[in-house]
Specification:
The structure holds two protein chains of two kinds. Chain A is an alpha+beta fold. Chain A contains ten helices and ten strands. Classes of the chains: A alpha+beta, B mainly alpha.
């Protein structure tokens, strides 16, 4: 009797499919690289937009809606592309290292860079997709970690391109099926097309959260687009703990500039000249929706306390805790004629979940910074 | 070669900046980040890909040659889209305080996606068969 033999460790040649080929990997990889770069660029914009001293302009009004929608869509498109790409090159995982020498060092360096790239890429897609559904099964901060790992992905991607440049060049000259052995089943061209179709389908099934006319098609979108006053919310009044304070008749809005300060009731605000503005709420999670807001121009309120143009404003909420209880509104937003202290939405009074009695709404701003239940505006020195 | 070296150096610098950013976290968060970074690779390389390869072997045995391409194509689309949809299908991010998130019937949605995929696969097979004179028994290719 012999002991059970351990199965042999597979080698690259044990994967005979003609689809494990650089001509497939280079093509799917090129699309994947483009999607990652688009997600990176739009992610940087989002990161910048969330900095307190952001210098991003307040126009176009739909700017953040577009870039953040593209950010999440590009990341979603990466999922099928990454899976197909990794399957295509999987046999290389089992390549035996060369004999100790200079080649071994290079081999280890390349494998390490690929390992870092794969780990970081999967991490970005997994955490991003979870964040879209506001699911956080980890202890680290999503925003700062997703931002840091983004640099790792792009760095490792550039290294990977540098290493593979000759292979990619060779693979991309000539058609994908050049020298393809005949056989049944999916062809190389078929696999590349399938990856592209899967990627487009993934986007189509989710993008309705930000493209209203695709809502019915996007059956896997984390948001249907419904909500109070036809607009989704991220934090309810109850979750923010403001139900009592927001409906208290003693509510006053404080507007402060140095020693000057005024105190206004919602009635006082409604008695001021009202401005209407059609502005989107565009959230970092990738959903967005258009709202028809009405209220007092923020600039008019700043004029009441004699704040000069070019002043930045600290906006505080009735909310007693939470990271976005206080936001810093840079001057270019404070001075924009479309920036409102909104009192109404869609022709009705603002609902409590949208920030009753008054909320901030500014053009081209991430939703988390559109402070709800505003209690105080303080002009910064 | 010089271009490649330059690219490589830029890449290393960019990735190192990301690593430096990561190291600003406290130890517990750093460990958690490491677990998630490594966990994704382990799940992918040692669970997902072997399962996919196994499924591929089974399909090659079971499916006649003329069915392989459309069926595999359909499975790639449905499989990858399903993985993409794991967070909405699981619904772990649902929040009783906020009915505007995860507010669709995702199981029904997924079934529709699966149904449409199957329909597309069947149509592709019928079109391929129609394009050939002999049908499945002909063994032309």
């Amino acid at each position: 009797m012999t002991a059970l033999k351990t199965p042999p460790i597979p080698e690259q040649r044990d994967f005979p499919s003609r689809l494990h080929h650089p001509r497939v990997a280079a093509r799917v990889g090129a699309w994947l690289g483009i999607c990652f770069l688009v997600a990176f660029a739009t992610g940087l914009i989002s990161h910048l937009a969330q900095q307190p001293d952001s210098w991003l302009p307040s126009r176009p009004v739909w700017g953040y809606r577009l870039t953040q929608g593209v950010h999440v869509a590009a990341g979603t498109a990466c999922v099928p592309l990454l899976l197909v790409k990794l399957w295509t090159v999987y046999p290389r995982f089992w390549i035996r290292p060369p004999r100790p020498s200079r080649e071994l060092l290079l081999h280890v360096a390349e494998r390490t860079s690929v390992g870092v790239l794969v780990a970081a890429a999967i991490f970005q897609l997994a955490t991003g997709l979870a964040n879209v559904t506001t699911w956080y099964p980890w202890s680290f901060s999503f925003r700062s970690t997703h931002f840091a790992v983004a640099w790792v992905v792009i760095g490792a991607l550039v290294v990977h391109i540098a290493v593979k440049l000759p292979v990619v060049r060779e693979a991309l000259t000539g058609p994908v099926d050049q020298d393809e052995p005949p056989g049944d089943g999916l062809s190389r061209r078929g696999l590349v097309r399938t990856a592209g179709i899967a990627s487009a389908v993934a986007v189509l099934l989710t993008v309705g959260g930000t493209v209203p006319w695709l809502r019915k098609v996007s059956v896997l979108s984390a948001r249907s687009g419904d909500g109070p006053q036809d607009l989704p919310i991220n934090k309810s009044a109850r979750a923010a703990g403001v139900t009592a304070s927001a409906t208290d008749p003693a509510y006053r809005l404080e507007v402060v500039h140095g020693a000057t300060s005024i105190s206004l009731t919602r009635g006082d605000l409604l008695a001021m000249p009202q401005t209407a503005a059609g502005l989107p709420i565009a959230c970092v999670e990738g959903w967005s929706a258009h709202g028809d807001w009405s209220g007092v121009r923020l600039r008019d309120l700043l004029d009441l306390v004699g704040a000069p143009r070019g002043s930045a404003v600290t906006v505080s909420s009735l909310q007693e805790q939470g990271a976005f209880r206080m936001t810093h509104l840079p001057a270019q937003f404070a001075d924009d004629e479309l920036t409102l202290l909104a009192l109404g939405l869609g022709g009705e009074a603002l609902s409590i979940d949208h920030g009753y009695p008054a909320r901030l709404i500014a053009p081209n701003r991430p939703g988390v910074l559109q402070t709800k239940w505003v209690s105080r505006l303080e002009v910064e020195a | 070669m010089r271009t490649r070296l330059l690219l490589g150096a830029v890449g290393v610098a960019v990735a190192a900046y990301g690593a430096w950013l990561l190291l600003q976290q406290d130890r517990a968060d750093l460990v958690d980040t490491g677990v998630w970074l490594a966990g994704g690779v382990v799940l992918h390389d040692f669970v997902l890909v072997p399962l996919t390869l196994l499924l591929g072997l089974v399909l090659i045995r079971l499916l006649p040659a003329y069915l392989r391409a459309p069926v595999v194509g359909g499975l790639v689309v449905l499989g990858t889209v399903t993985l993409m949809a794991v967070p909405v299908l699981g619904g772990w991010g649902a929040n009783a305080d906020n009915p505007t998130i995860l507010d669709r019937n995702y199981t029904a949605g997924w079934l529709v996606v699966a149904g449409v995929t199957i329909l597309a696969v069947v149509l592709t097979i019928m079109l391929t068969l129609g394009g050939r004179s002999g049908g499945p028994g002909a063994r032309r290719r």
